[in-house]
Task: structure prediction
Amino acid sequence: MTYIPIFRKRPPPGTAPGTLRVPEDAAPSTVDVMQYDADELTERRLEPFADVAAGGRPGLMTWVDVTGLADLDLLRTLGERFNIHRLALEDVVNVHQRAKTELYDDQLFVVARMVRPDTQEAIEQVSFFLGDGCLLSIQERRGDCFEPVRDRLRAGRRTIRGSGPDYLLYALLDAIVDGYYPVLEELANELEVLDERVMTDPDESLLADIHSVKHRLLMYRRSLRPHREAIGALLRDESKLISAPVRVYFRDCYDHVVQALDMIDNYRELVGSLQDVYLSSISTRMNEVMKVLTIFAAIFIPLSFLAGLYGMNFERMPELRLAWGYPALLIVMATMAGSMLLMFRRRGWLGRRRRPAGGGR
Amino acid sequence: MTYIPIFRKRPPPGTAPGTLRVPEDAAPSTVDVMQYDADELTERRLEPFADVAAGGRPGLMTWVDVTGLADLDLLRTLGERFNIHRLALEDVVNVHQRAKTELYDDQLFVVARMVRPDTQEAIEQVSFFLGDGCLLSIQERRGDCFEPVRDRLRAGRRTIRGSGPDYLLYALLDAIVDGYYPVLEELANELEVLDERVMTDPDESLLADIHSVKHRLLMYRRSLRPHREAIGALLRDESKLISAPVRVYFRDCYDHVVQALDMIDNYRELVGSLQDVYLSSISTRMNEVMKVLTIFAAIFIPLSFLAGLYGMNFERMPELRLAWGYPALLIVMATMAGSMLLMFRRRGWLGRRRRPAGGGR
Amino acid sequence: MTYIPIFRKRPPPGTAPGTLRVPEDAAPSTVDVMQYDADELTERRLEPFADVAAGGRPGLMTWVDVTGLADLDLLRTLGERFNIHRLALEDVVNVHQRAKTELYDDQLFVVARMVRPDTQEAIEQVSFFLGDGCLLSIQERRGDCFEPVRDRLRAGRRTIRGSGPDYLLYALLDAIVDGYYPVLEELANELEVLDERVMTDPDESLLADIHSVKHRLLMYRRSLRPHREAIGALLRDESKLISAPVRVYFRDCYDHVVQALDMIDNYRELVGSLQDVYLSSISTRMNEVMKVLTIFAAIFIPLSFLAGLYGMNFERMPELRLAWGYPALLIVMATMAGSMLLMFRRRGWLGRRRRPAGGGR
Amino acid sequence: MTYIPIFRKRPPPGTAPGTLRVPEDAAPSTVDVMQYDADELTERRLEPFADVAAGGRPGLMTWVDVTGLADLDLLRTLGERFNIHRLALEDVVNVHQRAKTELYDDQLFVVARMVRPDTQEAIEQVSFFLGDGCLLSIQERRGDCFEPVRDRLRAGRRTIRGSGPDYLLYALLDAIVDGYYPVLEELANELEVLDERVMTDPDESLLADIHSVKHRLLMYRRSLRPHREAIGALLRDESKLISAPVRVYFRDCYDHVVQALDMIDNYRELVGSLQDVYLSSISTRMNEVMKVLTIFAAIFIPLSFLAGLYGMNFERMPELRLAWGYPALLIVMATMAGSMLLMFRRRGWLGRRRRPAGGGR
Amino acid sequence: MTYIPIFRKRPPPGTAPGTLRVPEDAAPSTVDVMQYDADELTERRLEPFADVAAGGRPGLMTWVDVTGLADLDLLRTLGERFNIHRLALEDVVNVHQRAKTELYDDQLFVVARMVRPDTQEAIEQVSFFLGDGCLLSIQERRGDCFEPVRDRLRAGRRTIRGSGPDYLLYALLDAIVDGYYPVLEELANELEVLDERVMTDPDESLLADIHSVKHRLLMYRRSLRPHREAIGALLRDESKLISAPVRVYFRDCYDHVVQALDMIDNYRELVGSLQDVYLSSISTRMNEVMKVLTIFAAIFIPLSFLAGLYGMNFERMPELRLAWGYPALLIVMATMAGSMLLMFRRRGWLGRRRRPAGGGR
Result:
């Protein structure tokens, strides 16, 4: 498992800001452009990259969706074309940013972190630039959770086709935020299984599984939490880029973030409690083991001593000559063992005395 | 126990906002309408749904109480009739919202979470829309804690009949908040029993019960806590929908939420302390077990060795021939056992040395 | 111990606000009235309740001190006479309010919680209504910490007789807050005893006592903490009911609350630390027990084996015939035991090796 | 150790505010007066107390330094002479105040808590009254950390002699705050020793020492923390008593408080971590002990059984007659012991397998 | 390891503010001056110190970089030349300041803490004074992370050469903040190794390594955290010293601090979780050890007793005479051992029953 976030291959300290470096394992770049208004929608893949604005009559909304960061020239060209601040462009390429919203002059720069739909363990960075009439999104690699949004655009759904790029930004961010819910649901399922196992069958692997759930919760929380602030900044945004009717939608998206974070905190407390139960069940079990050992030892060690005593080879041990010596000793031994058992029963060491779990409810 | 909140069957990520989906296990929908002023009260069940406004003279307050979410057409009709934003309507149907207050133009949208009076483990969502002269409430299923409010309306109690729908909203929210008190009281009783058991009879089932109480506290806290913010928003509300005299009542309701949350936090600390006591009582008990084992072993193992020594078959073991060899050995053995016992008594290992629990008070 | 706060016998959820119910075990009601100015003081017990205002010339300050909540008619009459909001009156009777300050029109409503001077475990609610020229205080039952204030009034002390009812309110609240100090001091004494015991004589009852101190700290904190906010609200009060010179006194009272809360937090950390020390001393002791057991077992079990070996009845065991067989074996055995002891001494298992506690200082 | 703060001998609850009581063990009172400006400095001990103002030409700064609280008349006289509010005077005598800054009309009242330089465990209260052209400081007992400040005054250092009493207040507060550094340094040394011991030689006394460090950290934090707020209040002070150039110095003093608190928090985390390491080293050691016991028991108990078996006195035990019976049994026994040892070696129970501590670095 | 921060050799409490003392082990002082504008760059080492302004035409930006604090005269001269407040100069020399930003009249004083690039354990203080057209930086000793910035200056990079000293301050602070990333990456690597080891091979040295990682995290957090506030103060700075375009860069630098702190908090939670896993794996292992012991003891102790019984030398023990006595006893013994094994198998004590770690995923 590689849940420990690593941010290798950063530019070395002291490098000039805005220096672009292709991240390791960068995927090849492609550019998809959708241009639409309420009446019309065109969809193109630009390869090699041509001017986005070319084609399409004025007044159309433009969504430029870049995938893959391998082609730095492409990114630089986009940077110039969309007038992107070089610090923002550097953040696009250093793919370990926290989610955030920044205002550059006439442009909103939003970074979000998307759970990859194919492998839920990986989280990739998606950067958005919201300008007047256009939205630029830049993803790390192919495979995203935007397909339903594209389908709504293609299907000519009135709300999304009739609104500006701010609504499109909302739709994409909402898809990203909602993408955390299935993985949390998966964790909820694992938690239920762990809860069952900790009560009935606590073994050592349980702890590794608890540890794993804990780490994934930590990873999702770390990734999701800054979205609250980022989307909150969009809500309070002072630029004119987010229109008032769309703000209501962002408020809804903010609610989803808060609810998911609430879930995560809840799960973390549950995991902590599970771990406590597991640890104390280990202690309880060790107690059981010790009791078994002690009962055997306390009963048989004195008896063995007695047997050893009369196994001695002294010439004068009068008891050995007595006809009733052996049966008498057997009776003494049985009495000792019986009284030991009685004592242990009184201390409640015999019988496992378990009430059914949850019996107090 | 299904205390792990699950929010399955959410619409998939990327779905258009406002998409309504019948939640799983949705109850069939019914609509009850009460119209009243200080002088007059009519009560009707609309089946099939007819226009609410029909019947009743102008100036009457209207409370439309919808139960069950199975009939999406009904909800859509209501949405149009009451001019509900589609995001709010989506929240009504996605029944895992946190409690919240939102202002839509001329309408207050309030979500609350109600402990079901029949089975205190389940918590259902109740949505309210407060408009001018009317209140719409939408519950997940039949069975609520509103009956006393309805009785007060029917009995013609002056305050509630003479006030507007804002007071009605207060009365219903207050009933919901007060509904948490009996379940907390139940938990307080369980805690007292656990406190007694942890001191007198700590067994493994205790831990499961502590775990269960902890989880329910977590569930209630998670459910109740957002009400503080939601009702606080009503207190500070800038719309004209909550009149000044009713605000005093909401302040009282806010107090009740804070007090219940205070209780919950208190109980959580008590549960944590109980768990500590339980864990350390396990350790103490293991100590007792180990002492018993060690005492038996330390006394009898050396004696057994001596007995074994004189059980050896060497031809020349002069002691074996001595007439007083056997009684002398017995005396040596008794002395050894006695001095061991003395040592253990000095170390305080004999006797359980328990002061009566709470004896320090 | 009944430290788990219980709030039974609340009105059922949905009851109309302002519904008064006699709390269980309510004490019979009495009314004591003091009227005073700098020159004159009259003191009366009203039984049955007569109009408070009767008697006494205008301009006198009036303190109406009600004890016992059994007589609802009396409370309703007072409510009308002093123009009390019915929500406030309900809070008076539901005696599990948190401390708070609320402003109703021309009246300050203050709830405080008083440690009962007779039995320091119980905490009762005291409600105050501060109006123009009069103070109404309502206590749960007889027995309070106000006697020194009454004595100062009777003794004609200038400050209190020459000030308005706001100063009287201060004096009473200050008496309530100061009433927490003796019980905290009592807890400090118990903590010192526990600290001593945990170092010298940790037995199981210690844990119960730690648990008990923890719970009482929790109870006092829960009860005292809201006073900070309540008295803070009086400091910032916007009504004219608290005059500027008296505010300085309330600031002092606020300081006392903060200081006591500070103490409680301090004690809670100390208790937590004591518990850690106790738990680890149990572990250490178990280690000691295990070492004793292991030393005995490791020395004597091999020796017993050797003795058993030469106790076998094989016909051909040449060693048994040797004249020096027995003494040689004894030497071997002594060597084995000695080398074992040496090994254990090297591992530091022999001797208890305790430095005097606190010897590191 | 008496680290549990006790505040006995407070006036009983309900006592009139401003009542002065000599604290227990109050030191006899003396009054030292320094009067100075840039050119001139006089230093007098007033005994008995005479009017401070007497002697010295107008325009001189006056520092009245009172030591010891035994003489209440003196304090009352000073209170009248410097126009001190009686609540402030009460705080001077009740020597368990938290550090604070309060503004009374034309006077700043500052309470600070000084680590006594002679015995670093004790912390005493120092009260300051800053008025126009004069500073009054009241200490609990002789022995302070102000001598270097007095020396700077006597040496005619320009800054301190040329500034007003606000700078003097700064210099004294700064000396008090800096007085916490040596004791923290002492604790850092103890922590280093503990860190060394916990890795090499964890015995039970270690825990007592950790406990002691923890408590002293708690004590210093409790004492120092309110200074942050108190000095912060001086920074934001709205009276004219602190001049703008001196505020820069108070900012520096504030920084020192924050830095020392930062240290304390750091040390507390280190202590907590040390305790965790200690506890788990106990567990690890118990594991070692158990392994030794188990290895001995598992090897020799089966062997002893075999020896016991052939020590039985049955008449027909054919093996006993065999010439090679005894050597064959010895070989069997050696094989069993060897295979046991092999199994334990495989489980890694033999050898202590310690990597050098810190070897992972 | 010397991770416990020590601040020895501070001036004694009560020393006049602004007193300069050479810190212990102070490095010899050198002064390097760079003067530049977009067209021209000169670089000089001043030795002995000459007037900085000498040489270079007006309008050039000046960066004076002082290394080593041994030469107090140099520092005093610089202090006079750059008009530095003596409190600031004292902070330069007392090299244990927290990172901070302070405004003195027309000068910004910034303290930062730099991870030394040569030995990542040590952290040194760097002080900056930003004035009009010049930046003064003072480092503790040779060796810094500024070389790339110098290279950018020398290479004539347009942004840095064309901007003022505020941009240079940004570039240096950014280099300092980025210097924390490699050491965090190193810690992430160690964490991955620890995570692997705790699952496969938990021995005692692991705990020491966890302890070490924990302490270094604490050290870096303590050092880095105040930078957030310090750089935040630069962002909100009200002086004209930071120009609006450069503020965008400081925002980026602020982001880097927040991201690194986020990482550190994340790692701390991971370390805490690792420690929990380690502790509970110790408990689990002890359970295993105890089970082995108990199984051996429970099987062989009763058998040994039986063997001892028939090893007794009573004259009348009829069983010993029976021809089938010995084989019958052997069968009884085998039956007992077998049923014991069966019981232990049922309890799940036999076999290690480990699911593959992470098998629950």
User: Anything to note?
Assistant: Confidence is low (pLDDT under 50) at residues 352-361 of chain A. Strands of chain A lie at 30-36, 41-46, 61-67, 100-104, 107-115, 123-130, 134-139. The longest strand of chain A covers residues 107-115.
